[in-house]
Write a structure and sequence with these properties.
With 816 residues, this protein is of the alpha+beta class. The strands form twelve sheets. The chain has a six-stranded antiparallel sheet with strand order 3-2-5-10-7-8. Strands 28-27-26-25-24-31 form a six-stranded parallel sheet. The chain binds beta-D-mannopyranose.
C-alpha cells in the first residue's frame, strides 16, 4: 500500500530572509523560487550572478499529510525517497528520522513509530551544498584536487566532497546554480509481508533460445513462506520460497525459445518482453530486452581495441556525450528526455555516454534508450577531480551508491558498460605533483569500490576503469595515446589546431572530441537582450564558460573563412565550422573501421542556453551540426578528403549487415556549378566495411583548386547520399554570389519549402525566426538546376504563404 507524498510542499529559507513559498515536489529550490517570483529567470542575461545566494542558503521543504488507520495497521510503513539533494535531515512530526548525504542513493526507512492517524508533518532540511562542500574540503586531512578548470572563477569548487551532481557547481558549459531539492518519487509504503527491492535477470543465450534466471531481492519483516511467480512474455513459472527475516535472494529459471532479440538502432528492431514478478502481494513489472552483449578489449596486433558486440555483431558506435538536461532538476520531464533521445536517433546515433559529472539518469531515460535502440556508456558519477576515498564514511556511502545504481540499472538492455569516471586517471597521470596521493584515492575508489561492486552485482558487464583509459589494469594517459582503449581527443579544440589534425589521429574508440558554436539566434534571443548580441558583450561572456571559448571560435573562423558581416552571420558561421570539425573527424575515423569502432562527440545537449560544444541547444533545437551528424553518421556514407595537401581520397563506409550495390557520381565543379571532371562508379560496398573508392592527386582533379569543389552523389536501394568537399580553405575560394529563391507549399505530408539557386550556394540554411518549427534537413549544398525540398515540422502549422514570408536563407557567400 503506497501513499504518494509528492505534490505541493512549502519551501522555507532557514535564514533571516524568512522566505516562505509553495514548492512542487519532486522539484528544486530555484524552480520553486522562480515560480513564486522570488528570483528572476537565472538563464536570462546575467541573472545567474544575482541568484548565487540560493545555493548558499539552508532550506526546508515541508508538508502536511493525512495518514489513515489502515496504513498504520501495516507491520511496517517505509518512507521512500528516490533522491534527496543532498546533505539533509528528515523530520516527521518534529522527530528527526534520519540524516542523508548522497543524492544518488535511495533512502528507505521504517517510519511507522513516528506516524499517527490523522494529520502529520514531514520536513526535510537541506544545508547549503556550497558551504557544506567547502567545510568538508577544509576538514579533509589532505588537499584534494577539485575540478578546478570547470567551475568558473569565483565559485566554490568542492563538489568532489559531496555526492551531488558535480556540474551543479558549474562546468565549462554549465551555469552554477547549486540547486537542491527532492527528486523523483517520495512516498510511504505500508507492508505486511515481503516486498521486492530489486529484480534482475541473467541472460544466457544459446543458438535458438535464451535461458533467463530471474532474481529478486526481497525484504521480509519476519520469516515467512510465499509464492514467487515470474512471467516473461507468455512463459511463466512459480515456486514456493521460504524467506528469512531481512534481505533474501530468490530466483527462478525460464527458457525463451527463439527469442526476439533486441538490437541497437540501425541493426535491427527493439522488441521488449513484459517481465512480471510477484512475491506474496508485492508485484514488480518492467520491459526487458534480450540480447547478448560482449565487449572486446583484448590486445590485438594494433594495440587494444574497444569493440561492442551485440548478438555476435560488431557495432560501430556512433553518438555523443550526454549531460543532465537542465540545471533546474524540476525540469527533467519525460517529454524532454524523449525529445532529445529521438533527436539522437534521428541523427543515426546508436550510443550515448552518460558523462560522470552529471547524474545516473532517471529510469525514463533508460526506458527510452531500450525502446529506441540506443546503447548507453554509463559512467559512475566522478569527474575531473580527486575524491576523498580515504574517508571511511564517504567510501561506505559510495559503496552503497554503486550497489544501488548497478542493481537499479543492470536490467536495461541498453547499458553497454560501466565506466569508473570521467578523466580522473588521465588528469592524475598528468599532475606529477599530485600523483601519489591522487593515485591512492583513485585506486581505492575505482578498483577498491566500483570494480568490486560491478564484479559482484553485474559480473557479465565490463567495468572500464576511467574514460579515457587504455583498458583494465593499464595506467596510461589516453588523452593523446592512440591505438589503446578509448581516447578523448581534444587537441583540435584545446590545442588550437586545425581540423585537419584529426587526420593524424587513429583512435580505437574516441569517446570525446568536440568543437563549440554559438546557439541559434532564436536561443540567443531567449537569454540576451538585443544590445548584447555580440560575443564581446558581458552577457555573452557569462554564457560562454570556457576561458578561451570565444577566442578559439573567432580564431578558427579566421583560419577557414572570410570575416562575416553582422552578428547573425557570425553565429551561423560558428555553427557551420562546428559541423565541419566533427564531420572531418567522424568521416575519417569511420573509414578506419575496424581499427576504430566508435565515435562519441562532445556533447549532445545543453543544460541552459549557452555557447557550447552541444549539437542540440537548450530546449532541443538542432544546431547545424546535428543536421550534419545525421549525414556523417548515416549507415551508408561516402566522403572525400585530403589528408595531405596533394591527394584527395574518396571513401565509402557501410555499417549495415548487408552488402550494398551503389552508383556513385564523383564530380569536380567550378563555382558556377559546371562539371569540369566526372566519374561514375558502380560498385558493391560490403557489409560492415570501409572501402577506398579512389585516390587522385589534386592537380589531376582541378588545375586551380581555389576555383573548384567536389561533389559526391551516391545512390542505391537504401536511398541517396550526398556530400561535398572544398579543395582549398573556403576563404581562398572564389565563390560566386548566389541568389537563392524560396517557394513554400503544402501537400498530404504537410508543409515544405523548395529552395533553388542560380549558382552553387554552400552550407545553405533555411531559418524561420518567429514561426516555430524545424526543417528536416539544413546546411545543404544548393546546385543550380537542382532545387531542394525541405519539410517543415511544426505543432502550429502556418499557411504556406506565411511560411514563405518567414523563411530567411543563409549561405556561405552571403556572410560577406
Ligand atoms: C571533457 C569533458 C568535460 C568538459 C569537456 C569540454 O573533458 O569530460 O569535462 O566539459 O571536455 O572541456
Amino acid at each position: 500500500m503506497r501513499q504518494d507524498l509528492g505534490g505541493k510542499w512549502t519551501l522555507n529559507s532557514l535564514d533571516e530572509r524568512n522566505i516562505r513559498v509553495a514548492a512542487d515536489v519532486p522539484g528544486d529550490t530555484h524552480s520553486a523560487l522562480l515560480a513564486a517570483g522570488e528570483i528572476s529567470d537565472p538563464y536570462w542575461a546575467k541573472n545567474e550572478l544575482d541568484v548565487q545566494w540560493v545555493g548558499r542558503t539552508d532550506w526546508s521543504f515541508s508538508r502536511l499529510f493525512h495518514v489513515k488507520e489502515d496504513l498504520l495497521a501495516r507491520k511496517a510503513v517505509y518512507l521512500v525517497c528516490e533522491s534527496i539533494d543532498t546533505v539533509a535531515q528528515i523530520f516527521i512530526n518534529g522527530n528527526s528520522v534520519a540524516a542523508v548525504e548522497n543524492m544518488f542513493l535511495r533512502f528507505r526507512a521504517d517510519v511507522k513509530p513516528f506516524l499517527k492517524a490523522g494529520e502529520n508533518e514531514i520536513e526535510i532540511r537541506i544545508v547549503s551544498a556550497v558551504r557544506e562542500a567547502k567545510k568538508r574540503a577544509d576538514a579533509y586531512g589532505s588537499k584534494l584536487h577539485p575540478a578546478t578548470d570547470n567551475p568558473p572563477a569565483g565559485y566554490e569548487a568542492h563538489a568532489n566532497l559531496l555526492r551531488k551532481v558535480a556540474c551543479h557547481f558549474g562546468w565549462d558549459w554549465g551555469i552554477c546554480l547549486a540547486a537542491s531539492g527532492i527528486y523523483d518519487g517520495i512516498f510511504l509504503h505500508g507492508v505486511d509481508d515481503a516486498r521486492i527491492e530489486y529484480v534482475y535477470t541473467d541472460q544466457k543465450h544459446g543458438d535458438d533460445f535464451c535461458e533467463l534466471v530471474v532474481n529478486a531481492e526481497v525484504i521480509a519483516p519476519s520469516a515467512c513462506e510465499v509464492v514467487y511467480e515470474v512471467a516473461v512474455g507468455d512463459v511463466r513459472t512459480s515456486r514456493r520460497v521460504a524467506l528469512a527475516a531481512g534481505i533474501n535472494k530468490v530466483s527462478a529459471v525460464l527458457r525463451i525459445d527463439d527469442p526476439d532479440l533486441w538490437w541497437p538502432a540501425g541493426y535491427g528492431a527493439q522488441p521488449l518482453y513484459d517481465l512480471k514478478a510477484r512475491v506474496g502481494e508485492d508485484c514488480y513489472s518492467r520491459k526487458l530486452g534480450l540480447r547478448k552483449l560482449e565487449v572486446n578489449h583484448k590486445e590485438d596486433d594494433i594495440g587494444r581495441p574497444l569493440t561492442f558486440r551485440v548478438n555476435g555483431v560488431d557495432v560501430f558506435c556512433k553518438g555523443a556525450n550526454w549531460i543532465p538536461l537542465d540545471a533546474m532538476p524540476a525540469r527533467h520531464t519525460r517529454e524532454r528526455y524523449e525529445n532529445l533521445i529521438d533527436s539522437a536517433v534521428a541523427a543515426n546515433m546508436n550510443m550515448l555516454r552518460i558523462w560522470g559529472g552529471g547524474q545516473y539518469e532517471k529510469d525514463c531515460f533508460y526506458e527510452l534508450c531500450d525502446a529506441r535502440g540506443v546503447l548507453v556508456w554509463q559512467d559512475f558519477m566522478f569527474a575531473c577531480a580527486e575524491y576523498p576515498s580515504g574517508d571511511r564514511r564517504w567510501a561506505a556511502s559510495v559503496r552503497c551508491e554503486a550497489e544501488h545504481q548497478i542493481k537499479r540499472l543492470r536490467d536495461y538492455a541498453c547499458i553497454a558498460l560501466w565506466c569508473g569516471d570521467n578523466e580522473n586517471l588521465g588528469i592524475l597521470l598528468r599532475s606529477a605533483d599530485l600523483l601519489p596521493s591522487w593515485m591512492r584515492h583513485y585506486d581505492r575508489l575505482n578498483y577498491g569500490i566500483l570494480k568490486v561492486a560491478c564484479d559482484e552485482h553485474d559480473p557479465h558487464r565490463l567495468f572500464w576503469p576511467s574514460s579515457p583509459c587504455a583498458g583494465p589494469e593499464e595506467l596510461l594517459d589516453t588523452f593523446n595515446v592512440q591505438l589503446r582503449g578509448d581516447m578523448h581527443c581534444w587537441d583540435v579544440w584545446h590545442g588550437d589546431r586545425p581540423f585537419e589534425d584529426y587526420y593524424k589521429v587513429k583512435p580505437r574508440f574516441c569517446s570525446e572530441f568536440g568543437f563549440q558554436a554559438l546557439p541559434s539566434m532564436e536561443t540567443i534571443a531567449s537569454f540576451a537582450p538585443e544590445d548584447q548580441w555580440n560575443i564581446g558583450s558581458p552577457v555573452f561572456a557569462l554564457h560562454q564558460r570556457h576561458r578561451r571559448g570565444n577566442s578559439i571560435i573567432t580564431q578558427t573562423i579566421m583560419r577557414y573563412f572570410r570575416l562575416p558581416e553582422g552578428f547573425a552571420s557570425f553565429a551561423y558561421l560558428t555553427q557551420v565550422q562546428q559541423a565541419l570539425a566533427m564531420q572531418t573527424a567522424v568521416e575519417y575515423w569511420r573509414t578506419l573501421r575496424p581499427l576504430c569502432m566508435g565515435t562519441l562527440y562532445w556533447q549532445l545537449n545543453d543544460n541552459w542556453p549557452v555557447c557550447s560544444w552541444s549539437s542540440l541547444e537548450y530546449g532541443g533545437k538542432w544546431k547545424l551540426i546535428h543536421h550534419a551528424a545525421r549525414r556523417f553518421y548515416a549507415p551508408l556514407m561516402a566522403t572525400a578528403f585530403c589528408r595531405d595537401s596533394e591527394v584527395m581520397e574518396f571513401w565509402a563506409v557501410n555499417d549495415g549487415l548487408e552488402d550494398r550495390r551503389v552508383e556513385l557520381l564523383l564530380a569536380v565543379r567550378d563555382f558556377s556549378g559546371n562539371i569540369l571532371n566526372r566519374e561514375n562508379i558502380s560498385c558493391v560496398i560490403p557489409a560492415a566495411a570501409a572501402v577506398e573508392l579512389k585516390k587522385t592527386p589534386l592537380t589531376e582533379l582541378a588545375p586551380d583548386r581555389e576555383k573548384a569543389f567536389v561533389t559526391i552523389h551516391m545512390h542505391g536501394d537504401s536511398g541517396t547520399f550526398e556530400n561535398m568537399s572544398f579543395l582549398e580553405q573556403p576563404k581562398n575560394c572564389a565563390l560566386a554570389e548566389a541568389e537563392v529563391s524560396v517557394r513554400a507549399g503544402a501537400d498530404a505530408d504537410g508543409l515544405f519549402v523548395t529552395l533553388s539557386s542560380d549558382k552553387p550556394a554552400f552550407y545553405a540554411v533555411a531559418e524561420t525566426m518567429g514561426v516555430e518549427g524545424e526543417f528536416d534537413d539544413n546546411m545543404i549544398l544548393l546546385l543550380p538546376d537542382s532545387p531542394r525540398t525541405l519539410r517543415f515540422k511544426t505543432k502550429t502549422p502556418p499557411r504556406p504563404d506565411e511560411l514563405e514570408k518567414a523563411v530567411s536563407i543563409r549561405h556561405l557567400r552571403a556572410t560577406y
